[in-house]
Amino acid sequence: MPDFTVGERFRVTLFGQSHGPAVGCVMEGFPAGFAPDGEKAAAFIARRAPGRNAWSTPRKEDDRPEILSGLNENGQTCGAPITALIRNGNTHSADYAELKDTPRPGHADYTARVKYGAAWDGRGGGQFSARLTAPLCFAGALAKQYLEEKGISVAAHIARIGTVTDAKPDPVQPALPLYAPGAFPVIDPERGEAMKAEIEAARQQGDSIGGAVRCFAAGLPAGLGGPYFGGMEGKLAKALFGIPAVKGVEFGETQACGSANNDAFCVRDGAVRTATNRAGGILGGITNGMPVYFTVSFKPTPSISIPQRSVNLKTMEETPLAVHGRHDPCVVPRAVPVVEAVTAIILLDAWLGK
Length: 354
What we know:
The chain is an alpha+beta fold. It has one domain (5-352): 4-Layer Sandwich (Chorismate synthase, AroC fold), CATH 3.60.150.10. The protein has helices at 38-46, 109-116, 133-149, 189-204, 232-240, 258-261, 332-352, and strands spanning 5-6, 11-16, 22-28, 66-69, 82-87, 153-161, 164-165, 211-218, 246-251, 265-268, 271-274, 282-283, 286-287, 292-298, 308-312, 317-321. The longest helix has 21 residues, at 332-352.
């Protein structure tokens, strides 16, 4: 599978660089005859857009997708690949001039330089940038809308920022959506204020902070996925690790003993269910009819203004480096819709193959 493509039946391919003219995506395999809600999709993308609040980068982009193909004259998907373009406008490429030969610690700068040589476009992180999650969110927005028509809901929230954790939904019957539209993406607003304080404290120090996102998918039928390398955990985890800054994915939860960890089977409304949901809705790589849920860990933003040590790749001498420019002090709040988007893409891909 190419580096920028995810999915099998429903395939999403990303293109573009952070400071290029535009970023975008091509979607293949989306079912024909579906009329996406453009305003709803734009609102979803706006949840991850930069420059909207104090806890994100000041870089402000419109992030309105231009659909170039894939819809008929009635605004329905027609079976052709759906191509969407999102223009880049507010770029400050000069901020990266001094970084061309000095890789930022924690970033892909060094490994990209090794792989692509001096030709690599490192402005804003190039093709490694989280800027490409904008078109990824557009693809996920359409996938979410389609799944909702089938009774499948996908929703995420901030599970943790620094040392502050959010309330945890009921894993058996989560109340989705998990927070009010337009609000900081947490269940408990009081804990959300404490998270904002953690972000601001890191920002004031020129530092950054990490955390985690928890995602739920409810309404899935039993039987999606397969054993071993066809398992839903593996498909979701592979795609989720494609999101920049992701360092871990954990499904469900584990207890010390099998007697405490196993989910007892029961019958609810004439269907086989489990009394608890520590498995996270997946057994043997196959959905069991319970809500699927998992937690995604994000590292702190590597770009910080505190001086760090690096190497000048031209002189091969160690050198101090303080990163300037515009960066998120915490990526977690804007990552919430990205996790939802990736999840919806993989679930739609699995649903189409059932």
